[in-house]
């Protein structure tokens, strides 16, 4: 490691660490999905996205950015809603994948 990189790592505060961990969670969720390790219709993918959004939102308390905060809040709300619907059994079946019309299901 270069001296500058080593010094930069040592000076990270807790908010920056949360932001980096959030970035890694976003990256991992997308990589796992694309590589077939997780299913986009399962609970793991939205859970990782929610975790990532929470971590990035925590980091934004130190260096606020309105657009980034709105994005993270939206990901959290949409992800939690999707998980709640999934666990309550209220989520619609993916009728397009099966070729059926919504009224046929």
Feature tags:
105 residues, mainly alpha, 5 helices, 70% helix, flat
Write structural notes for this entry.
- This protein has 105 residues and is mostly helical.
- The protein has one domain (13-91).
- 70% of the residues lie in helices and 0% in strands.
- α2 (14-34) packs antiparallel against α3 and α3 packs antiparallel against α4.
- The radius of gyration is 18 Å and the shape is flat.
- The model has no long low-confidence stretch (mean pLDDT 89).
What structural class do helix, strand and pairing data support? mainly alpha
The oligomeric status of these chains comes to single chain
Radius of gyration: 18 Å
Residues in β-strands, percent? under 5%
Instruction: State the share of residues found in helices, binned by percent.
Output: 55-70%
The number of helical segments is 5
How many individual β-strands?
0
Kindly, what is the distance between the CA atoms of the first and last residues, rounded to a whole number of angstroms? Answer: 58 Å
Succession of helices and strands: HHHHH
Mean pLDDT: 89
Low-confidence segments, given as residue ranges, are none
Q: How many distinct folded domains?
A: 1
Profile the largest sheet: none
The gross shape turns out to be: flat
Summarize the structure.
70% of the residues lie in helices and 0% in strands. The chain is mostly helical. It has one domain (13-91).
């Amino acid at each position: 490691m270069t001296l500058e990189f080593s010094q930069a790592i040592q000076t990270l505060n807790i908010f920056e660490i949360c932001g980096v961990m959030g970035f890694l969670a976003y990256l991992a969720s997308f990589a796992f999905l694309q590589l077939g390790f997780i299913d986009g219709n399962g609970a793991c993918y939205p859970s990782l996205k929610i975790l990532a959004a929470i971590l990035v939102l925590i980091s934004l308390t130190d260096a606020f950015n309105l657009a980034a905060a709105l994005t993270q809040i939206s990901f959290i709300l949409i992800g939690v809603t999707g998980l709640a619907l999934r666990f309550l059994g209220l989520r619609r079946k993916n009728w397009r994948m099966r070729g059926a019309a919504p009224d046929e299901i």
